[in-house]
Automatic annotation (TrEMBL), chain A:
SUPFAM superfamilies assigned to the protein according to its UniProt record, in alphabetical order: Periplasmic binding protein-like II
Domain of life per record: Bacteria
Entry protein name: Phosphate-binding protein
Gene3D superfamilies, per database record: Periplasmic binding protein-like II
UniProtKB/TrEMBL annotation, chain B:
Organism: Actinoalloteichus caeruleus DSM 43889
Name of the featured protein: Phosphate transport system permease protein
Alphabetized PROSITE patterns for the sequence: ABC_TM1
Domain ABC transmembrane type-1 as annotated: residue spans: 61-291
Family annotation (InterPro entries): MetI-like, MetI-like_sf, Phosphate_PstC, Phosphate_Transport_Permease
Amino acid sequence: MKTKRHLTALGLAAASALLLSACGTDDNSASRGDDAQGGNGGTSGECAGQENIQAEGASSQANAMDEFSVVYQEECAGFSIDYNPTGSGAGIKQFNAGQVDFAGSDSPLKDEEITAATDRCEGAVPLHLPMVFGPVAIAYNLPGVDDLVLDGETIAQIFNGTITSWNDDAIAALNEGVDLPDQEILPIFRSDESGTTENFQQYLEAAAGDAWTSGGGKSFTGGVGDGRAKSDGVASGVASTEGSVTYVEVSFAHSNDLSIAQIDNGSGAVELNDESTGAAITNASLAGDGADMVIDLDSVYGTQAEGAYPLVMATYQIVCSEYPESETAEAVKSFLRVAATTGQENLSTLGYVPLPDEFQEQLLDSVETIS
Amino acid sequence: MFRGLALGSGGFVVALIAAIGIFLLLQALPSLQANQVSFLTSGEWTTGDPNDMRFGILYLLWVTVATAAFALVLAMPVALGIALFLTQYAPRALARVFAYIIDLLAAVPSIIFGLWGLQVLGPALVPTAEWLNTNLGWFPLFSDGNVSIRGGGTIFTAGIVLAVMILPIITAITREIFERTPKDQIEGALALGATRWEVIRTTVLPFGRAGYVSGSMLGLGRALGETVALYLILSGASGRAPELSLFDGDATIASKIANDAAEFNNEISAGAYIAAGLVLFVLTFVVNALARWITTSRTGK
């Protein structure tokens, strides 16, 4: 099977060489797709390019990439991807050095990184493709209180020590009819540097207005509470301590059976689920131009759209808009196509948000521009 | 030929230690030069931006020394008791089984101790810690620390876990030494009509004191360098200064390095941690030198 495909690939390569057309990749992938695709159907029918892709980067999307990798191998037998979750910084470094085919990153490239990436892509600009979205839960441990509503301002005040008790007037005002205990709040934060903290603080800066003044960054700056290492640490810390509250990726909140607060973004309390997070993504405005899809996070975090849950982290796949090797471009395209379509189906069980339809179409359009 | 071999390996170890020291120093130097605050007298720790490095060892050093010292204070008497029981009181067969069990403790990986401390011991100690804080809070060591007591991630919890971890080391060495108490001395004391406790006081303890102390110092060395268990147990304090209480938290030098190792993005930031490692290296060196000095000066008498 494998040798057969190899021969086909060789033949195709020869054919395209004869045609002398680097842009003839569309025909190429179509014919390739016909013989590689069994009957799995789906919108992601075309598998082409080199057989193995190397990628590296953000660990926040590691579980999603594992899922994508499985689906990719199912859809495109014989093709595979290796994703090395070493962190956004390392991924970008490897990508810019030409060691990997694309990078995963929690934040868009900085200017000097764009310059380096443009060199790596031999003059073509890099594209940001936000493909994996993970909601962050405000998880708390307060026996007897199953429904809790908070807004940006109260969350900020809890995490900087302005609000110290669960029955504070500001919390009570958002939770009429709920019997809040007179208990001290223990905020638990990530003691290691993390993208979750960075996004959480960025959210507070966007949504809390004057209530959050201590700034952002990967280290927690609120100045109160107990720090715990890693997502698992903060989640189990909340699970074992009454009156505590933390911010953590939703999958960890679920696995530790923690209650999750609803967030009032200005147009009513919103529960964290696929629809509400999807609504926030759909309403996001893009800062990049054309196929480049840098998300303006302030538009997500500050959203006042009805039914939109604002606290969502985006992870980008950083790719070349034009690869030096067309084989690489084809493979990256096939993979991203699969990831953006069939790959999304199981994501919500892993703690991510499946792409909302409108956004998915836009993303697929961007993927198609890669060459 | 054997002389050559022995000399060679001896020299190799010394060269290796020196190389480690020099390596650490070279790696740390650029960061220390970029440091905006005093490394030895500040407790701040922000290393994210290579152009604005602010890091000092003070808070980390306090937590490192406090956890290790607290652990030692708890473990030393217990280890002494166990060693005396095993060598002087317990029947031979029982002693062997007991010694085996104690040694087994040393084989438990430290991450297991860490998880135990985090999930079992920490929460279980909260009532005790709160009682100490409310009733004996006037005593500086039991006053409010820089992290919450009900979170459990304090020096108090960490020290107790560390004490359990270093117990087997101290016990094993002390037991070995006590067993080597010369028989004729013991028999002589018995012949003079000494009770068992008097025998211990007049022969076993004076003979074994140096070994006991150096065993304890070895345990202290282990406690100072312990990483994973403390990384799991200690709560971060978000840069708040310690109150010099047992209910402080944050991190030891080693656990701080473990905590942030995933985010070493540039050499200047990493150098700050290497500088901290250098301090730990020197600290351990001093402790070992102290142990050596105690051993030689006591046996010399």
